[in-house]
Write a structure and sequence with these properties.
Elements lengths: L1 H24 L3 E5 L3 E5 L1 H6 L10 E2 L1 H4 L13 H7 L3 E8 L4 E11 L7 E7 L1 H15 L9 H17 L7
Antiparallel strand pairs: 1-2, 1-6, 2-3, 4-5, 5-6
């Protein structure tokens, strides 16, 4: 019986090691929270937010939330709010102190299966995609030679200004 318990403990430890290795291998920033404190996080998360080891202390969730101005205030969430949040993917912008630039992330929430109210919050870096999207949007509306709006953007802007003039009953001139 003692040997079987020892073998089970070894297997559990092996599974924990596998789970930690997989979590730390992720490019996304991943943390587990109860809504008030950070319970666990992968290495990438810890490095990005410059957090110390969580093993010896509880880290308040607000330490991270203050770095993410676009993020919902999870501390105020009810259980129903958490359930609704699992259906959303929100784009957030976080200033990267090390790189001295804005980084774009998709923030996603999931309820931790089989646990007592714990949640998984992941931040997937989409900075390159966002900069490409902005670049192609600019290409689509700016003439490369003159660096002014092209005909499509001109027509769109003209239409918006005409609608504004009608709405506010003001004069309009070109």
């Amino acid at each position: 019986k003692i040997h079987r318990e020892y073998m089970m403990e070894q297997e559990i430890e092996r599974q924990r090691h596998y789970a930690r290795t997989i979590l730390d291998f992720q490019d996304s920033l991943v943390m587990v929270t109860n809504g008030k404190v950070i319970i666990d996080a992968n290495q990438r998360f810890m490095q990005f937010f410059k957090l110390a080891d969580l093993a010896n202390q509880e880290m308040p969730l607000e330490c991270v939330l203050e770095e993410i101005p676009d993020a919902p205030d999870f501390r105020q969430y009810s259980e129903e709010d958490w359930n609704r949040a699992t259906e959303l993917v929100k784009k957030v912008v976080i200033y990267d102190q090390e790189e001295k630039m804005d980084r774009y992330f998709h923030l996603k929430v999931a309820l931790f299966p089989g646990q007592g109210g714990e949640k998984i919050i992941s931040l997937t870096d989409v900075t390159e995609l966002e900069y490409e999207r902005q670049y192609y949007k600019r290409l689509a509306i700016i003439d490369p030679l003159t660096q002014i709006y092209n005909r499509v953007q001109f027509n769109r802007s003209l239409s918006e200004e005409i609608q504004k003039a009608r709405r506010f009953q003001s004069q309009f001139a070109l």
